[in-house]
Amino acid sequence: MSEPAALGGPSTFAFSRTVTVFWRHVFTVTVIAILASAYVVVRGTSDPEVSDFDQLWHGARALIQGENPYQYVGPTGVFGWAPLYYPLPAMLLVSPLALLPLLAARAVFAAISAGVLAAALLRDSPVRLLVFLSAPMFIAIGRGQWSPLLVAAAYFPSMAWVGLAKPNIALAVLFGSRKPWSAVTSAVIGGAILIAVSFVIEPGWLASWLEALGRKRDGMSVLIHGGGLFVPLVLLRWRRPESRMLAALGSVPQTPGFYDTVPLIMVPRGFRETSFLVIAGNLALLVLVSGVGLRTEQIGPLYAERVLLWSSFLLYLPCVFMILRRPNDARALPDAPIRKGLVDSAMLMALLASAFFAIWATLARYI
Asked: If we measure between CA atoms, which residue out of 192, 152, 146 comes closest to residue 166?
């Protein structure tokens, strides 16, 4: 074979294409990470409202200073907010960020969470990047929640030990992993190391954490709310990992908040299903903030109940229908791309309109 022919052969073309795809993915991940951190900075510089991440940051700083984070953080602590419901390994994981100012730490955590999840979705199902246009994702990133990283760990099994930071949601997501045994191995080994280090640093942390959890009164299961009653039906497709994940996620007690519905993005396949779920999530936020069916004075007291109600009907129930339409086997289904035509064009317009509302609703008070 002549040298020019060899240089222009199929292997050279394939290598060039691989490099191009790699840098395209790097660019996409970088842009999403930057936008996530910018979103958090806008929120943080415009309003001093505490985010959920702040508990971890203050708790980690207390550890660095040799103090008990469960005494430092809480209604009677130096950082007087809610009791510290996170286990000590969660503070170990964010301890490097405790060396940064609070707002910078929030921004870096958001960039890491969004960037790692974007990399995971690009690897498995790029169309699922549409989740970054959903209200649950905006809320999760803005409040410094763990759900984006936990979903990423389902696609990167070597990250499963991160789930120790929020074990109730992580356990559910673990059922949705395509490589469950690899994920379990990573979770057990990495988790054991984190737990051991936690006991070395603060021997009494487990008792303090369990005591804090004992004071928690808002942990609820989706199964007893509205459309959540239909979630067990997905076990008719028990061989599918997304079915097991959905059943587990609907069963575990969780704080009422749209941020813990982020793992549901593991259910849809293709443009139409993913777009539908994103639109439904944005609609759930709309009906929540508009107080549909409630008098003004009822909106605040019934917030938690309404979050679970609308989550169950507009997010969990569509996922149930998606799963029941599939065969009861573990084979991954191909993604159906966006098609030319009226249906997909209308869905795209609805998606963009709902995303605009979700951005406005989650940022309006900060700008």
From this structure: 146
Q: Residues 133, 360: contact at Cβ < 8 Å?
A: no
pLDDT tens digit sequence for 87-103: 999 999 999 999 999 99
Q: What are phi and psi of 79, to 5 degrees?
A: -95, 90
Tokens representing residue 53 in the block: 């991440």
Q: Is the pTM of this model over 0.85?
A: yes
Would you tell me how many other CB atoms lie within 10 Å of the CB of residue 212?
18
Token pair listed for 10:
């199929």
Looking at the DSSP assignment, which residues form a beta bridge with residue 79? 73
Cα dihedral 254, 259, 264, 269 in deg (nearest 10): 180
Domain boundaries, the chain: 19-366
Burial of 82 (0-12, 13-18, 19+ CB in 10 A): middle
Cα-Cα-Cα-Cα dihedral sign, residues 184, 185, 186, 188: positive
- Give one DSSP letter per residue of 67-135, joined into a string: --HHHHBSTTSSB-SS---S-HHHHHHHGGGGGS-HHHHHHHHHHHHHHHHHHHHHHH-GGGGGGGGSH
At residue 220, φ and ψ (nearest 5 deg) are: -135, 155
In the chain, which residues have pLDDT < 70? 1-17, 47-49, 291-302, 365-367
**Both tokens of residue 260?**
């813990």
Cα 282 from Cα 137, distance rounded (Å)? 10
Three-state DSSP class for 221?
Answer: coil
Helix (H, G, I), strand (E, B) or coil at 254: strand
Residue 275's H or E segment, with its range, is helix 270-290
Q: What is the pLDDT of residues 150-171, one digit of tens each?
A: 999 999 999 999 999 999 999 9
Whether 162 contacts 149, CB under 8 Å: yes
